[in-house]
Amino acid sequence: MHLLPTQFVDAPFAHADGDVARLAGGMQWFAAYEILGDGPRRIVPVADVGGLGTRAATLHARIVAPRAPWALGPRTLRFDQPTVAGILNVTPDSFSDGGAHDGDPAAAAAAGVAMAAAGAALIDVGGESTRPGAPLIWEEDEARRIAPVVERLAAAGTLVSIDTRKAPVMDAALAAGAAIVNDVSALLWDARALALVATRGAPVVLMHSPDPAKGPHGGDGYADVVTEVLDWLEARVEAVVAGGVDRARIMVDPGIGFGKSLSDNLALLNALPAFHGLGCPIMLGASRKRLVGALDNEAPVERRLGGSVALALAGAAAGVQVLRVHDVGETVQALRVWRGLRDRALSG
User: Fold this and answer.
1) 241-296 per-position pLDDT tens digit
2) Are residue 146 and residue 255 in the same domain, yes or no?
3) 166 and 46, same structural domain?
4) Which of 22-26, 68-72, 138-142, 180-184 bottoms out in mean pLDDT, i.e. has the lowest?
5) Does residue 95 contact residue 131 with C-beta atoms inside 8 Å?
6) Active-site annotation, residues
7) How many structural domains does the chain have?
8) What pLDDT, on a 0 to 100 scale, did the predictor assign at position 104?
9) Where a domain ends, among 64, 81, 111?
10) Distance (Å, rounded) from C-alpha 322 to C-alpha 253?
11) Residue 191 — very low, low, confident or very high, per pLDDT cuts 50/70/90?
């Protein structure tokens, strides 16, 4: 069973106590749950969730619990409102901006600092493309690509995460000043990764992909993509906790575009509130993805800004805490307007 928060409300103060609940301590309130993976779909009021048993009670407690902020040296990453992670690729072949900063650490770091100045709370640095068909990069080469960029960003006071699935690259980035590990394989591609993250005490983002030991774009399809991805991530969170990582230092990512069809991606996006049942902050990475082009006459990557902002706002409405994007300034502006509207609605 999983619980999908639904029937969102703009005026929680107009409802009796217990009839609505706050989503993960954020800016959204809801009045009911849709029950997933437990027979026919049905809607249950929040006030009646206590009658659904122990599993539902556990999920409800996770869904409404505020997410503790991550204290990361002099910086703090908060989760009580949506924030932006800026994507900084230092590769020659990433699908969107490959080659823009390849081989020039100073220019790459300057681009990251500019994203932070535009409102990004976090800069996510990647040294290996995860687009379909991308070649595997030797870990030492990847580490050499990212280390000088991370070092410059950290020296400038920017909060940095490292987007990699290789333990030596994680280690090099953390040594250079990165604070967070973001792994598209959920620490499954490299057998050394979980122990390294646990030993270093770094927060980690666990992304779903169908067969992470082989690569992020495999898989044979899904019978029910939402419940299968939720089950997979729930099991993965428990395994990483058992491996020594504090649950409060884990973030989850449904892996939009990784081994999933357009229909799968849309189903996951519509079910994003259910991922709060994992009890962790959520990252959404849908910026400039193929699904935007698929819904807009095969629009190329450079013409996917509008769709990317729309997906970011959908994520904010679902309570997603971190939105991983290429277009920082435009997304931050959209979120500021969205927050203004929410503030006014919640103030009565």
Assistant:
1) 999 999 999 999 999 999 999 999 999 999 999 999 999 999 999 999 999 999 99
2) yes
3) no
4) 138-142
5) yes
6) 289, 324
7) 2
8) 87
9) 64
10) 10
11) very high
Kindly state whether residues 142 and 246 are assigned to the same domain: yes
Q: Are residues 183 and 280 in the same domain?
A: yes
Q: Which CATH number do you get for residue 293? A: 3.20.20.20
Mean pLDDT of the chain: 93
Q: What is the mean pLDDT of residues 12-29?
A: 94
Residue 58 has a CB neighbour count (10 Å cut-off) of 14
Pairing mode, strands 29-36 and 75-77? unpaired
Task: State the number of CA atoms in the 13 A half-sphere of 22 facing the CB.
Answer: 12
Q: Cβ(291)–Cβ(257) under 8 Å?
A: yes
Whole-Å CA distances, 100 to 84, 94, 106, 127: 21, 9, 12, 12
Cross-sheet strand order for the sheet of 283-284: 250-253, 204-207, 180-183, 160-163, 122-126, 83-89, 322-325, 283-284
* % of the chain with per-residue pLDDT over 90: 85
Contact 82, 272 (CB under 8 A): no
Which residues, including other chains, have CB under 8 Å from residue 11's CB and lie 6 or more apart? 345, 346, 348
Are residues 158 and 274 both part of a single domain?
yes
Nearest-angstrom CA–CA distance, 305 and 143? 30
Full-model pTM: 0.95
Q: How confident is the model at residue 91 (pLDDT cuts 50, 70, 90)?
A: confident
The residue out of 24, 48, 64 marking a domain boundary is 64
User: Are residues 299 and 314 part of one domain?
Assistant: yes
Q: How far apart are CA 313 and CA 334, in angstroms?
A: 7
CB distance 168 to 139 below 8 Å: yes
Domain limits for position 272: 70-346
Taking the C-alpha atoms of 123, 127, 133 and 137 in order, what is their torsion angle to the nearest 10 degrees?
-160
3-class DSSP string for 164-233 = CCCHHHHHHHHHHCCCEEEECCCCCCCCCHHHHHHHHCCCEEEECCCECCCECCCCCCCCCHHHHHHHHH
Bridge-based pairing state of the strands 21-22 and 122-126: unpaired
pLDDT at 94: 52
